[in-house]
């Protein structure tokens, strides 16, 4: 079976079917390394540090069509008798990584999108009040009709596309649950460490060449992006560093959105508040336990810290809950 992935840049130079040569080259190099290594992992359960002719799987670049700036690749599953490590597409593994590396939407992000630099809550626009609940309604309408409400401000349109990506990843990972479970903790750590810097490289064209990047399962599936990055999200990814290993953190959960896995936790004796997110493939497993733990003062969370360039923790990616001693 042949799989097609489309990388679609929009805005800026991309709208005139052009891109900065250097930025485009940086993106293609990073994307190529990422997808070849994900192909290796899917087939063998591991990946090499260096890519040589012997491990360079046949992923081909195809001609793109007019409009925006699309980069299409095709990946044909190897026709070998040996059973692959995972019966999954590259898009499935990208969805797995997207849930861990891309920050989830929260009300603060929505407020900032509509009122940059202002502390306004909730958001009001010509399209009405946009809360996280309203965002989900707008996203469902978008996925169903394929059209965005033209009365929405551009930043909220981007939030709708970003939320569509979150919901699509959730559906895709749920459909491949049995295969995704083959990625154990050690393999997940290696995948995250390998892919995080490459995702940063892939976002380089959002500096000048484009204002957004979508990774689509095919060229026509506009409302089903596996990943959606705008310039602000790309900037946060470029400056963020994901720890190579998990930590056990004692904290007090102060907020939790049971629908998308976003929340806030107080750590360091309640002196620091961090936002956290739980990947959608893990959320159903620990959601009720986390809700129950909110009834007590503190809980042990297992996860990866995401840090700024100075090494300061800026958010937490939660992958589990540990037993809290009485």
How would you characterize the overall build of this protein?
The chain is an alpha+beta fold. It has nine helices and 13 strands. It has helices spanning 21-44, 90-101, 107-114, 132-145, 154-175, 177-180, 185-202, 231-239, 283-293; strands at 2-10, 59-62, 69-76, 123-125, 128-130, 212-216, 227-230, 241-242, 247-256, 262-267, 272-277, 299-307, 313-322. The strands form three sheets. Strands 2-3-1-6-7 form a five-stranded antiparallel beta sheet. A five-stranded mixed beta barrel has the order 9-10-11-13-12. It is globular.
Q: How are the strands of the biggest sheet laid out side by side?
A: 2-3-1-6-7
Query: Compute the gyration radius: what is it?
Result: 20 Å
The pLDDT mean sits at 84
Shape: globular
Counting helices, strands and paired strands, the structural category is alpha+beta
- Major beta sheet summary: 5 strands, antiparallel
Query: What is the tally of helical segments?
Result: 9
Low-pLDDT segments, ≥5 res: 118-128
Number of domains: 3
Percent range of helical residues: 25-40%
Number of strands: 13
N-end to C-end Cα span: 53 Å
Region (Disordered): 112-131
